[in-house]
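Schema walk-through. Below, the input block comes first and the output block second. Nothing else is stored per chain. Lengths vary across the set, and this one has 266 residues.
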Amino acid sequence: MVGKLATKEQESDMAKSKVSPAIAKTLSARSKRPAFEHFIATNEYGFYCVPNSYSAREVPQLLRAGRVYEPDTLNFMRRHAGSGDIISGGAFVGDFFPALAQALAPKAQLHSFEPNPTSLEAAQTTIALNGLTSINLAPVAVGEQPGTLPLLISRGESNSAMAAGAKIVAEAQGENTIDVEVTTLDDLIPASRQVSLLQLDIEGFELPAVKGAARIINDNAPIIILEGDKRFRRRAYLQTLEELAPNLGYEIAGVIERNCILLPRG
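--- output ---
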C-alpha cells in the first residue's frame, strides 16, 4: 500500500491513547510521507519503506511478501554481533536495519551509508518506522579515497530504477548517473568506536571500500562479510587483506548465500 498521512485528529487520538510509546512513535513515523510514492512492507523484524519505482526488483518483492532478504547472512551477523559496532552497507531501503539493531550490544551502534537519494530517504523512513535510535546513516558512498564519482541509478532510455543494483561506475552516463560524494570508512567511523562486524554489498565496489578501512581493520580485527559469489573476487579479497593487515591472517571461513565470510587468525 502507499503510505497515508495521518490527520491532526488521528495524531491527537494517538497521543491520548494508551498505546506504548514505541507503537505511538511507529504510527507517527508513518505519517511522515516521503516525497515519492511508496508502500510499507513488514516481516518478522520490522517495517520498511519501499519506493514504488523499486517494486519489480528482488528485495522489494521479498519485503512485500513478508520475507527476509539473505536470511542466513542476517542470522549469522546477529549471532556474531559481539560487543562492538556493526558496519553494514549500502543501506538500500534499510532492509537489514531492524534485524541488526535488535542484535546490537548495549551502547553499540550500527553504521551505514547510502549515496542514492531515493534509497537514502527510504532508509531514513525505515529507521523512523521502527523507532531505531542506534543507527548512523551517512548520505555518501565509500571507497579507497575521498572524492566524487558517478553513481548509476537507472538504466536505458526509460530510466528504469536500478534500486539495490545502483553502483559506482567509471564514467557518467547522462541522466542515468548522478555525481555522489565518496569518503572512506576510516573517515566515516570515529577511531574511538570498537567494530565487531564489517559487512559490504556495494555492487563490485567492495575492494576500494575495504582499502579505505585499513585503520578499522587493523585496530579491531572484525569479522568481514563481503559479497563474493565468484572465486576470483574471494581471491582478490584475501590478497587485499594480506596487504592491508598482514598480522591478522584473514582466512575464508565459508560462503553464506552470496557472501564471503572472512575471519582473522592473527
